[in-house]
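Dear colleagues,

For the upcoming journal club I promised to circulate an example of a predicted protein-ligand complex. I picked one with S-adenosylmethionine because it came up in last month's discussion. The inputs are reproduced below in full, followed by the predicted structure.
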Amino acid sequence: MIDELDFAGPEHLDPGFVTGYEQKQGNPDPTADLDVLAAHGVGLTSTVVDLGAGTGIFALAAARRFGHVIAVDVSPAMLRVVRDRATAAGLENLECVQAGFLSYQHAGAPVDAVYTRNALHHLPDFWKGLALVRMAAMTRTGGVLRLHDIIYDFKPLEAETVLAGWLDGASADPARGYTREDFATHIRNEYSTFRWLLEPMLVSGGFEVETADFRGSVYGAYTCLRR
Ligand SMILES: C[S@@+](CC[C@H](N)C(=O)[O-])C[C@H]1O[C@@H](n2cnc3c(N)ncnc32)[C@H](O)[C@@H]1O
């Protein structure tokens, strides 16, 4: 078994980076994702697991709308932020678990939804395949997987052109966005995969792809149903 902390991205373990994380992300609004889950019947009696929850942008909002939310992240620094915010907001239905895609042990009934945003690319493809099987195993039949990630929607021969365009669109300000060097580090050191590899992995993991939306051939969002 790999040690998922070795793959988590050193910045995600650094409390200094974590402090500025949401501003760097552009303070994303989780409402559209909450609405996707709600449209699939997720509600006040439902359980949702957020894998790679980060600072809890989604998990905290989800706990205000759904029955029980489990925020899982391998980074103690990230999870500390979620825990502190959940306590300050009195969100007793938000549980925090320090674990990874491959080490989280789900106890209790299968969940209604799994959410994961911009985290699965930390695992090499073999381990992504196993992580997806584990997600399916913790989800009830008919439950939902909402997945966002940096996923390459192009052919290998197009890599140079598409990735050059991605780098050209990077932020100039590291405090307010991902810079050219951040993107280059992602390409070199992280494990974003091709769309045409990920989709069979989703299917063999036990999911049916309901929707797939791509932006800039690099950012993918999936809604999948547990078969
Ligand atoms: C780019 S952040 C995304 C955080 C959050 N989902 C969001 O959208 O803001 C990636 C997160 O994945 C976590 N992570 C990395 N590898 C992981 C793993 N194997 N299992 C669980 N979490 C992991 C990191 O600690 C970090 O919090």
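Two points we might discuss: The longest helix spans residues 76-89. The first strand starts at residue 47 and ends at 51.

See you all on Thursday,
B. R.
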